[in-house]
Amino acid sequence: MTSTTSGPLLRIDGLGAGYGRVGILSDIDLELNAGEIVVVLGANGAGKTTLLNAISGVARVSAGTIRFDGQDITGLRPEAVVRRGLAHCPEGRQIFQRLTVEENLVAAHVRRGPRGFEALREDVFTLFPILKERRNAPASRMSGGQQQMLAIGRALMAEPKLLMLDEPSLGLAPKVIHQIFRIILDLSQSGISVLLVEQNVQLALECGDHAYLLTAGRCRLEGPAQEIAAHSALNELYLGAAPLEDTLHV
């Protein structure tokens, strides 16, 4: 699942995006290299989800370009984006509650390469043994943590090069949150790049390679994750209290 190009796996230049006539993002630049975990931070309403939606073809792009694995995917429909190797695990999980675990995986399967459904399903079951145990159970009868695992498993059925995760720790118990982050690291080590939107700043920066912080739809701070974690302006920028200036690079 490595990139076929020598440049960044994902490159965003001057992105503006929103919904209908409402603009949310302005002049966003972002890069993600193959094998990296890139973290996007920001308070509620900063534009993090809109960024992922713009990449995956859900939000309207009004300016700029999105290039993935050397190809321009700006404005492509979501199904076309998925077939290029980019999977989106949205906020709120959005699994099919009335379907079983197995049926959810069947519904999410996208044939992109030589590996078929059974092989991809076994990868998911190896990563999440509880899903194999509960493969015939309706998703609605699973715990929040198990549903989040199923949501990630569904995304992996597209055999992605890049997995985008939107708030995977939302509403979960601390023990389950740490388990989810351990899985994110395992995915990265297996060759799947990750673009992670997350409210848990400490854990996100601990597992991330690079980080971007959004405020009011603009990137305010970006750099290596560990340097961002130590940046004196992080809390002020995260809370949106700092004056709006140019992006700070560290």
TrEMBL record:
PROSITE patterns listed in its UniProt record: ABC_TRANSPORTER_1, ABC_TRANSPORTER_2
Domain ABC transporter: 10-241
KW ATP-binding (keyword) present: yes
Keyword set, alphabetical order: Amino-acid transport, ATP-binding, Nucleotide-binding, Transport
Pfam family, one: ABC_tran
Nucleotide-binding listed as a keyword: yes
InterPro entries the UniProt entry points to: AAA+_ATPase, ABC_transporter-like_ATP-bd, ABC_transporter-like_CS, BCAA_Transport_ATP-bd_LivF, P-loop_NTPase
One Gene Ontology MF term: ATP binding
Chain ranges passing through the membrane: none
PANTHER family linked to this entry: HIGH-AFFINITY BRANCHED-CHAIN AMINO ACID TRANSPORT ATP-BINDING PROTEIN LIVF
Family designation: Belongs to the ABC transporter superfamily.
Protein name per Swiss-Prot or TrEMBL: Branched-chain amino acid transport system ATP-binding protein
Annotated organism of origin: Labrys wisconsinensis
